[in-house]
Amino acid sequence: MSARRLFTQLSRVTGKACRAALSPSPSKHSSECLKPLNTSKFNRIPPKPRRGVLLGALTSSSVIAVALGVQFQESKAALHEESKEAELSNSVPDIQKFRLAEVERHDGASENPWVTKGKSVYDITEWVGAHPGGEVILHAAGGSIDPYWNIFTIHKRQDVYDILEQYKIGEVDDVDLVDGQVPTKAIKDPFTTDPVPDERLHILTAKPCNAESPGEALSEFCTPNETFYVRNHMWVPSVEEQEHNLVIELCDGTEKTYSMSDLRNRFKQHKVTATLQCAGNRRKDMTKHARQTNGLQWTVGAISTAEWEGVKLRDVLADTGVNLNNPSPDDKHAQFLGLEAYGASIPLCKAIDPSGDVLLALKMNGDTLPREHGFPLRVIVPGNVAARSVKWLRKVVISDEESTTQWQRRDYKSFGPNDTRPDWDAAKSIQEMPVTSAITSILNGFAVAEGTEKGLNVEGYAYSGGGREIVRVDVSTDGGKTWDQAELLDDKAMGTKAWCWKRWRYALGESAEGKTTLMVKATDEAYNTQPQSYSSIYNARGNLATAWHSVDIKSLDKGTD
Amino acid sequence: MSARRLFTQLSRVTGKACRAALSPSPSKHSSECLKPLNTSKFNRIPPKPRRGVLLGALTSSSVIAVALGVQFQESKAALHEESKEAELSNSVPDIQKFRLAEVERHDGASENPWVTKGKSVYDITEWVGAHPGGEVILHAAGGSIDPYWNIFTIHKRQDVYDILEQYKIGEVDDVDLVDGQVPTKAIKDPFTTDPVPDERLHILTAKPCNAESPGEALSEFCTPNETFYVRNHMWVPSVEEQEHNLVIELCDGTEKTYSMSDLRNRFKQHKVTATLQCAGNRRKDMTKHARQTNGLQWTVGAISTAEWEGVKLRDVLADTGVNLNNPSPDDKHAQFLGLEAYGASIPLCKAIDPSGDVLLALKMNGDTLPREHGFPLRVIVPGNVAARSVKWLRKVVISDEESTTQWQRRDYKSFGPNDTRPDWDAAKSIQEMPVTSAITSILNGFAVAEGTEKGLNVEGYAYSGGGREIVRVDVSTDGGKTWDQAELLDDKAMGTKAWCWKRWRYALGESAEGKTTLMVKATDEAYNTQPQSYSSIYNARGNLATAWHSVDIKSLDKGTD
């Protein structure tokens, strides 16, 4: 079904726009772009890895190309070659040698992509579908992966090495070595044109840029653009607005292309205030209070709120030909594709719900969308995990199935505390977020002069997905034995439902004297509330760390007051 | 605004239908009905009680006419008469005497309704609005409340006596006593025509009938009509289908009347499978594990599932004149009124949402709606607390405000664990339910032969409101330290969203040997999960007792196997 094929063409990483990145046909790519790939065999449900490893030990961040291995209960994947399997199980007494010319034939367009690392040769055919970074891995196929890993340094970890090692099929023939090494070609660092992040942001990784909002940004209802948290899976595409188009593709193959000018002038512009939150927000707390989780160790700042402005996705879909009142039975999902190869989807019912407020946003807090937040066009899916608000949007595909990307099928899901053999296909993608809250005005270990904690004003946020309003925030100073209610602060939000966090304030009183831990939990309008412990919701990926949030206060010695 | 006035006319309680109960005008009542009341002064937001008492000590079940007192922070209600207040505060040295003729003038139509109890006289003006049973209390006004309390025996409790005592203004003059007593008139017991409940149901109260489903009924996906839990606030109205009409009243005063035949023949019939759950389900557990709660002490059986059949409320509203695509700004709530005086409302957006599946149901599990479940017509609001699925539906009022009944404004709300001074007006009515689960195949204290617990199959349900599907059920045999996943059972539900409970099964294994407590918690598709403890969600009304459900297994002595 070519109409739904996901092309992994990448925008060029230099300053000028890459028109070919928007082209539906691989043959139209610009020579300046990274080579397009024949990925039709990979772009459906990812195959299961040949030999898995325990989730808890090996799953990793959602950052591009981090390996993620799973011990599947019924791994039925065919072996590459029986003879090679035998070799491997015999501790590889006779290492098979491959000429580099043969390796090069196993490029991204091949049925069996190979890579080299050092002198070793790996057949990654079965890994491509499970690669958290998606099919970008195919760019390295046919040659050495080392120069890529020198840029995407997040791969330089033992657990990633272990995964690759499973796919080893031999080594490069000595006759092709130069000074005893496999010659590698230089590749361009795609991150060189990334915007420089605001220095107030707390940087977790630089390439790709992942940075959380500082406390002062979290104290405002709308987060300033400069200090809005950044969550990138890859580099920031460079594109000129006048050269960017959005393609909408329907189930019946209909395609329609919209320029940014079309979107700006032909459709009614709407403003929606919405909070975006990463599924990994507060992951660090889960690691601290339960056990190791794999992924970016966010504290409370992988969440921000902005006023978004643009067109309603439903209006554009109606223009393309979707029957909003009676969609075809095949119209089940709206898949979003970004310029940098990231992709995700939401149920079509959310996309076309008049109360769903799903936007194609061109502006953020009144300004042009900043590059790191998706310029020139991004999706905003209020109430859902931010991973669905795809940035640098180049295409929307209406489909009978969810996006086939890793980020839809193998990441942004959650499993039971002891679930080391998750059934990925059966698990529901995270869409609406559960209720959560956090203290933001003071950090863990905040020091106060002895006795002055009772005069402290504490602030924070509470948020629930699906537009469910926060109805109560409870604060405890005695470890959850008793609770009092925080004041919910007014806000001026635009939108059909409660898409935004609720900011709250609590003045500690006499009863707080000598108490060293503050705890907070929120309740939303469906009266869902937060779990008490991280251990009860532990999952190896550390997603949705929504347990009661606590902050320890440290007393200064009297003399230091 | 007469168009939105709530009349408290009651259907007659004998076998024949009371047409007057459907009449919009008090003057048209049948002489067979209980007297109509001029309740215009009571039918808005209830006034605050003159002198409150602590919520924890006095709030009570949602059963009709049980007293509910609240200590309000700023009670500004005017005193009835300064002089009487002075008398009361002086320990009533000179008791004021009233002739019965004067008492009789303070009937339900009076500005200041009085009642007598024993020889005492009470001015209940300020209590009417706070009475959990609604304005039904006015039927006793002008005379003795004793014959009513002899039928509604749930009032015979010290906390209710205490509330009444606050409103004492004097005593009946001795000249009107007969044999030293205030003469009382006989009143008809409205419960005499109630259906006899199935003997398998667990009866909590007989008048009104409140009965929970037995374990065997909870083991089926659709609960049989006979063992579907019963939650009545009053008696079961007797009405003939051919004499029953539904009135729809719009904001602009438009009224349209539909016979049952109209609903059956003029509108498309739909089937929706939906779970109904009382806000008090599992309240008994909250009492046991936290502290005293006021209300019916349900265990796990105030929940059942049925296939409902009828017309979509949105279709009927469209026929009456509601613009479904662009409702008027005043069209905010759909208020439902039952024949017996019960009333509640839902937001209009839910009522008209094509995915909301709100039904006016005429059939239940393929049969005519049983009398105790709302014959001939009831509302079904899938995903919301069952208190909104009003039975014996006589009228739908589209309004800019919520239903003004106690059940919308003063009951079916929830507050913080320590919230003894709740702001009722600021609190959101419970609509969508939070995620919950329970073990149903074995009851607490279930006895097994020592060592055989490891061969036990356990079953139960999990449910979440708002149509949010259950994605996982976790079972623990070690007090929540570790969890395993239960098997989710297939079901055949009809409807747009996941309106039904998910039944689950878990086979205990070797690891359960010697373990005595089973625990269960569920997660829904928004990844909300249940709180660990009842204390963290405690509220004096005992609503939404959704903490992890646990069942203790008792080991039989070896000899008794």
Automatic annotation (TrEMBL), chains A, B:
<dbReference type="InterPro" id="IPR000572">
    <property type="entry name" value="OxRdtase_Mopterin-bd_dom"/>
</dbReference>
<dbReference type="InterPro" id="IPR001199">
    <property type="entry name" value="Cyt_B5-like_heme/steroid-bd"/>
</dbReference>
<protein>
    <recommendedName>
        <fullName>Nitrate reductase [NADPH]</fullName>
        <ecNumber>1.7.1.3</ecNumber>
        <ecNumber>1.8.3.1</ecNumber>
    </recommendedName>
</protein>
<feature type="domain" description="Cytochrome b5 heme-binding">
    <location>
        <begin position="95"/>
        <end position="173"/>
    </location>
</feature>
<dbReference type="GO" id="GO:0008482">
    <property type="term" value="F:sulfite oxidase activity"/>
</dbReference>
<keyword id="KW-0349">Heme</keyword>
<dbReference type="InterPro" id="IPR036400">
    <property type="entry name" value="Cyt_B5-like_heme/steroid_sf"/>
</dbReference>
<dbReference type="Pfam" id="PF00173">
    <property type="entry name" value="Cyt-b5"/>
</dbReference>
<keyword id="KW-0500">Molybdenum</keyword>
<dbReference type="InterPro" id="IPR005066">
    <property type="entry name" value="MoCF_OxRdtse_dimer"/>
</dbReference>
<dbReference type="GO" id="GO:0050464">
    <property type="term" value="F:nitrate reductase (NADPH) activity"/>
</dbReference>
<dbReference type="Pfam" id="PF00174">
    <property type="entry name" value="Oxidored_molyb"/>
</dbReference>
<dbReference type="Pfam" id="PF03404">
    <property type="entry name" value="Mo-co_dimer"/>
</dbReference>
<keyword id="KW-0479">Metal-binding</keyword>
<dbReference type="InterPro" id="IPR008335">
    <property type="entry name" value="Mopterin_OxRdtase_euk"/>
</dbReference>
<dbReference type="GO" id="GO:0005758">
    <property type="term" value="C:mitochondrial intermembrane space"/>
</dbReference>
<dbReference type="GO" id="GO:0043546">
    <property type="term" value="F:molybdopterin cofactor binding"/>
</dbReference>
<dbReference type="InterPro" id="IPR014756">
    <property type="entry name" value="Ig_E-set"/>
</dbReference>
<keyword id="KW-0560">Oxidoreductase</keyword>
<dbReference type="GO" id="GO:0006790">
    <property type="term" value="P:sulfur compound metabolic process"/>
</dbReference>
<dbReference type="GO" id="GO:0020037">
    <property type="term" value="F:heme binding"/>
</dbReference>
<dbReference type="InterPro" id="IPR036374">
    <property type="entry name" value="OxRdtase_Mopterin-bd_sf"/>
</dbReference>
<comment type="pathway">
    <text>Energy metabolism; sulfur metabolism.</text>
</comment>
<dbReference type="GO" id="GO:0030151">
    <property type="term" value="F:molybdenum ion binding"/>
</dbReference>
<keyword id="KW-0408">Iron</keyword>
<keyword id="KW-0496">Mitochondrion</keyword>
